[in-house]
Amino acid sequence: MDEALTIARQQARERRDIRTLDALAWVSFKNGNYQEALAASMKARRLGTKDLLILYHYGMIAAKLG
């Protein structure tokens, strides 16, 4: 998973689109980096997306953080 996190971070720096940021959020979440996951998820949702997968990821991250 460390390699996936490294790749997701690199791609998020380069691309900054909502799907890449969501991928970073989810990989961070799965690696236990909950604060990083929340920050990336909030950036992914910045345009008010209605994408259910992005919203699901945000909900799981928010639930973990209480």
H/E element order: HHHH
Uncertain spans, ≥5 residues at pLDDT below 50?
A: none
Query: Structural class, please?
Result: mainly alpha
**Roughly what fraction of the amino acids lie in strands?**
under 5%
Main beta-sheet annotation: none
Please count the helical segments.
4
Rough shape? Answer: globular
Oligomer: single chain
Domain tally: 1
Q: Helix fraction?
A: over 70%
Rg, Å, rounded: 11 Å
Distance between the termini: 24 Å
Global mean pLDDT: 96
Give an overview of the whole structure:
This protein is mainly alpha-helical and 66 residues long. It has one domain (2-65). 79% of the residues lie in helices and 0% in strands. Helix 1 packs antiparallel against helix 2 (18-30), helix 2 runs antiparallel to helix 3 and helix 3 runs antiparallel to helix 4. The protein is globular. The N and C termini lie far apart (24 Å). The mean pLDDT is 96.
